[in-house]
Amino acid sequence: MNNPARPIVQRDYAVQRDAGSNPHPLSSPRRGSFLPPMLLWFPVTSVISLVCVALFAMCYIWGYRAVFAWVHFPELTDSAYLWQVWRWLTPAVFHFGFVHILVNVLWWFILGRVIEVHQGSARLLILFVAAALIPNFAQYVVGGTNFGGLSGVVYGLFGYVWVYGHLRPGEGLFVSMSVMVQILAWLVLGFTGWLEALGGFRMANAAHLGGLLVGAFLALLYAKGGPSRFFLGMERITLGTTCCNWLSVP
Fold this sequence. Notes:
Helices cover about 65% and strands about 0% of the residues. Helix 4 packs parallel to helix 6. By secondary structure, it is mainly α. The protein is globular, with a radius of gyration of 20 Å. The protein has helices spanning about 35-40, 45-60, 65-70, 100-120, 120-145, 150-165, 175-190, 195-200, 205-225, 225-250. About 30% of the residues are buried.
């Protein structure tokens, strides 16, 4: 994809959180800090990127098999893995090759920093955990423990930015239709098996689809007023349906 950064952001950093005097976080970095600016401005984006790079470097020191043995998704039929809860998330930060990590971390950094700057580090952290945990489990169900990569989370961020940007177009999140067509086309090609046949590598299709759906669902949740308001609305719908059914009983 040519110059992927530009179609993503509708309004880059030239925004302010409030119409008053509160400046955007990037316009007022903390003075006297020993941390690099990126860790101050978008810490979740930076830390996850650094963890991916660090694990990838460890593979060249201790070998892929040794590192993968510590981070792969748990075999749920083996009681020895039950306490190793980190394994539900760590497959998302393990990569199998240079191109694999380059593409995933690039898109994570492009999308993650925009979400983090506009909506905060907590929101991005929730997106990461949800778009790693649920898709990882889905991929394990259909294909076992032999998978890894940040692509499921990246699909989650795409789904989130795409849906949220359509529901609230004035809040600085936007993905162009041309980019989404490419992303969805890649997803469909993965399910056809052609990429595996031509390139010789397996695609974590369940993780990709799961991530996209998780991101879209969370965007709907937050764009409609947040989780509490969403579930309150669902309770009202359920209560109304129950009352209608009760009144319709002869």
